[in-house]
Specification:
Order of helices and strands: EHEEEHHHEH
CATH topology of the largest domain: Flavocytochrome B2, Chain A, domain 1
CATH superfamily of the largest domain: Cytochrome b5-like heme/steroid binding domain
Pfam families: Cyt-b5
Shape: rod-shaped
Family: Belongs to the cytochrome b5 family.
Subcellular location: Endoplasmic reticulum membrane; Microsome membrane
Largest sheet: 5 strands, mixed
Low-confidence stretches: 87-95
Distance between the termini: 70 Å
Number of helices: 5
Number of domains: 2
Bound molecules: protoporphyrin IX containing FE
CATH class of the largest domain: Alpha Beta
Main location: endoplasmic reticulum
Protein name: Cytochrome b5 heme-binding domain-containing protein
Strand content: 5-15%
Strand order of the largest sheet: 1-5-4-3-2
């Protein structure tokens, strides 16, 4: 079975001494390759700790470039909410705003039933005297 690489591991290997790159939900150890990369080391380093798929595909890498990947494979990436590997929020700055919105939403989820409970007891209190 293929090794599962967590987001924490991906983040640990995010510098020139040890660099993992996430492409198509698979993680590659490109540490030895970065110095040989025809596109330079900086472009690859810029993709550390995030999903590099879009950047890699935008360049239109050749089949030769893709063939190099199989020797660098570490394992499959363990999907996580911390890093959306697909969808409109992948590697964009808006994910924080989305997370905040979701958090605010869940606060409301607690507040609404509590408010209803409070209203119920208030109603009982006011009506109990008149029976
Ligand atoms: C980690 C996996 C990667 C491998 C194995 C790889 C390999 C290669 C290879 C072999 C080339 C030569 C042209 C070709 O055969 O397509 C190339 C070019 C290039 N790569 Fe990558 N690359 C990787 C990741 C990236 C990433 C993440 C970027 C980010 C943008 C990138 C940007 C470029 C650019 C801009 C060129 C064109 C260089 C030029 O023609 O001047 N590469 N890459």
């Amino acid at each position: 079975m293929a090794k599962l690489v967590t987001y924490a591991e991906l983040k640990e290997h995010s510098n020139k001494n040890s660099l993992y790159i996430l492409l198509h939900e698979k993680v590659y150890d490109v540490t030895k390759f970065i110095d040989e990369h025809p596109g330079g080391d900086e472009v690859i380093l810029a993709e550390a700790s995030r999903d590099a798929t879009e950047a890699f595909e935008d360049v239109g890498h050749s089949d030769e470039a893709r063939a190099l990947l199989k020797d660098m494979l570490v394992g499959d990436f363990e999907k996580t909410d911390e890093l959306k590997t697909k969808g409109p929020y992948s590697s964009s700055g808006s994910s924080h705003a989305v997370n905040t919105a979701v958090q605010q939403g869940s606060n409301a989820m607690y507040f609404v039933p509590l408010a209803m409970l409070g209203a119920y007891f208030a109603w009982r209190y006011y009506t109990s005297g008149s029976i």
